[in-house]
Write a structure and sequence with these properties.
- The complex is a heterodimer of chains A (about 500) and B (about 475).
- With about 500 residues, chain A is α+β, with helices and mostly antiparallel strands.
- Chain A is about 20% helix and about 35% strand.
- In chain A, strand 8 and strand 9 form a beta hairpin.
- The longest helix of chain A is centred in the N-terminal third of the chain and has 22 residues.
- The radius of gyration of chain A is 28 Å and the shape is flat.
- Chain B has 3 domains: about 240 residues, Thrombin, subunit H (Beta Barrel); about 100 residues, PDZ domain (Pdz3 Domain, Roll), CATH 2.30.42; about 100 residues, PDZ domain (Pdz3 Domain), CATH 2.30.42.
- The chains are: A alpha+beta (about 500), B alpha+beta (about 475).
- Chains A and B meet through strand 14, strand 18, helix 5, strand 19 and strand 31 of A and strand 1, strand 12, strand 20, helix 7 and strand 31 of B.
Chain lengths: ~500, ~475
Amino acid sequence: MDRGFKKVAIGCALVAAFAARDARGDAQGDRIREALAKLESAMVRVAFNTEVTKTNVRLMLEDGSGGSRESEGEGSCIGLVVNDSGLILIGGHVFPDPFSRSMFSGMGFTGEASSPPKNFRIATEGGEFLPAELVARDEDLNVAYLQVESPSATWKPIAFAKSAALRVGDPFMVVNFLDKKSEYQRSFVSGRVTGVVKGSVPRFLQNGVGPGMSALGDSGSVGGAVVAVDTGDVVGVVAAPRKEPPKGPSGGTGLNLDKAHGAVMSIGLTVVVPQILMAAALEPGIKNPVAVAGERGWIGVEEFQPLNDALAKSFGREPGAGAIVSLIGDDSPAARAGLQVEDLLVSIDGNDVEAKDDTAVQDLRRKIKKSAIGSTIVLGIERNGKPMEIPVTVANAPKSVYEAETYADEVFGVTVKEITYDQIQRKNLEAADLGGVIVHKVPLAGLFSVAGLQPDDILLGVNDLPVKDVASFKTAMEKMKKERKKEIVVKVKRGSDTRFQKVQPDWN
Amino acid sequence: MPTLLPPFDPRPAFVALLLLASPAAALQQGTEGGSGGGKPAAVSDEERATMETADKVNPSVVSITPVWEEFDSGAKRDSTGEGSGVIIDPEGHILTNYHVAGRAKKLVVTLWTKEKIGADLVGGDAYTDIAVIKLRLDELKGTSLTWASMGDSDQVQVGQSVLALGSPGGLKHTATKGIVSSNDRFFSGEFRLPSGERTGAFNTWIQTDASLNPGNSGGPLVNNRGEVIGINSRKSGEGLGFAVPINVARDVAEQIMKNGKVTRSWCGLELQALEDFADFFSVKADEGILVSSVVSDSPADRAGIRTGDVLVEWGGKPVKARFTAEVPAVRKLMADTPPGAEVEVRLLREGKEQRVKFAVQELEAELGDEFDCEEWRCTVRGMTRYLALDRKLPTTAGVLVLGTVEGGPASRSKLDFGDVILKFDGQPIATLEEFKTKYKACIEAKKPAVRLTVARGKAQNIVLLENDFGRE
């Protein structure tokens, strides 16, 4: 055999090997390619603008003056087309926690607060951007919906499998976009379900070893469609990590007392549990997301504690046979009806309440949300072992911080916000604080910044004018401008103390 | 915000660095000495004065090694460090910082002669960060006691030379030199000591650029006559050191030596300097002090004093604060009113004079006592008016969880730092004593589980704490 022939033979063998492999068909690869093709038009890239406010307060100084500066940026996330009129589903992770704020460092506080994203736009294949508007947020599922404002565009919505489910060990893939450096090319990551957290809405997890090793662990995949590789079905989307309320004490200065080394700022912890949100959980929302997110039935029970096994045993009840009331808003329908903290809620309108875990508590909250505003629901409770029935009239939920009225005064250099009910709960403010506005931004070197005002201060008065809400603050500031006041005394509540700060405008 | 000069902790890397640095420095000195030919250096008058001052005061300067208890880890643990102090009288009383010795259960003092003897805590005051300890003179062998004389800190002037003496980093009898940078530095009183109490509300501070380091705490700041004018307490950045003026320290020490503690009164008023608000509040520029808040249901609140009132007279004495540095003196004047005494207050409200009378009450400690729940593997603290106010709780009921040991019953039940335990098996807990009684009864009865109601922010949760009996 001469060498030439030998070469050809080896070549042929290689070709044959490849051919054989091709003939066998990489079935999994085919299914992945099919899924990618299927999702081609149902998945879009959503771009938006971000703004981070950095605040610096110098505590070394007697008046603690400081200020904030904004830095703007651009963000991007996955959007799924969910109906034929251009409704887009995105992960709730693009919305920052409105309650996180400061960190203590050296001679003062430095804090970073992110504003909600603005100027949503959908990237088209042709490189254009179609403007989109935020129409609804579902905070329980931590997703949001955008409506594209383009009459001419046509949309092919994603088709979720109705009854698909994943089990531990099942392979899945997530279709996503690469980063800016890779020009946002479409890509996918794959893995197998490594755990299922049981509950009324099960959570499917995939744990990798170390960062980037999990198909779910990367925030670039949040909002991406999850495809069951074995069947090619689109079974869900990657949910944003659940936001847990900040740990540690809330209230007052927000400082942790008694820690060994003086003042330590409490920092909100976000427990990152990447998970797959099943399509089934999304389905009602997709039909009419605005209606779902807009469900505002409210009785004012802000926290329930699930009756887990141990607690149930200690109460002499079956596990999950009820939920313990942990927090009732002041002057809420539940408070007025006489519901009390520590009451055990066992039924609503005669239907048993089952709340064995946090997901079940979420279901319970949703159930209350769905109640018609103005209707009366009967809460069956047990108080100190005694059964009672408490009728509560369902009210419209109070405004959330996302809906808070905002006013920016460029002359005085301050942005204020209405104090919403949820801020009172989360920041442990007193209900009386509702009569005032909360400082949101104090641009560095502006009049309010020089006067020593800080973000989170509550403004109660301007000169002799009481500040009751955003409108009255605006009126007061307009009056100051009109009368060209040289000295303005602002009454401020900071922590549990009030104080006066002087603002000195220069009208020349 | 200034940081404290923590009592020097001999464990960290600082020691290693010093050990590494010292031989090199010695070598260099040796070389220099050789080339200098042993000729004595000329000493200027100024240097001689400094040397004399150091020589005069150093024999009364001591190093203090305290042992105190800490509760924040979820268990009672002993901790130690090193600070400074100055002997002030022939009975062996030593002035130092509260954050050095104020919570000590055991004290070892190293004298000028390097002799080590025991000392006992006489008392401490967190508000001024001053503590008094007393040497066990019967243990003294061979050292004859020397004490420092105290100057008048009201006469201190910016620019005058000062020496800081003490044991920075445990380096005994270190002298550093500087000037008085400010004689009335004000801190708002929100600064907290490592043990959690606020400090600085009732006094101003002497600021100096004399180098202060951890371990200098409690040591004297002296003038060029060798008189103690301040007690070095905290620093911030380079060349920003702060000392408690000796007049403040002496006053506090006298009360401690007489009564074992400092007694102050409280009426619920928060004050602010009038600065240039005078016009707005219709008062003269140099008149009165502004009421910035009134604690609800306090004596002042019940007497009808309101935010925005301008206080002009307290118990017949005129009070005023145009600038922030004048606020502590007014607070002190008010706090010096004997608890229970009735005071008449003259104030201006929208320019009109009003007189109100009320009885002040005793200013209670900011932090309640600690207690180690050994079986539960957690530590708690009694609630106080201050803690309740800071946590926005309506009453002082309950106990505050300070820490839990991971894996213990408390930690397993998810009890955590900051929780306030309000109920014990459904029974409300008013005080730490009540809690202790219930806790001890539960341990003695070997109850398998306890249901606790805890306040977390605005919410209340039920925590089921399962004891570890028989699971060793």
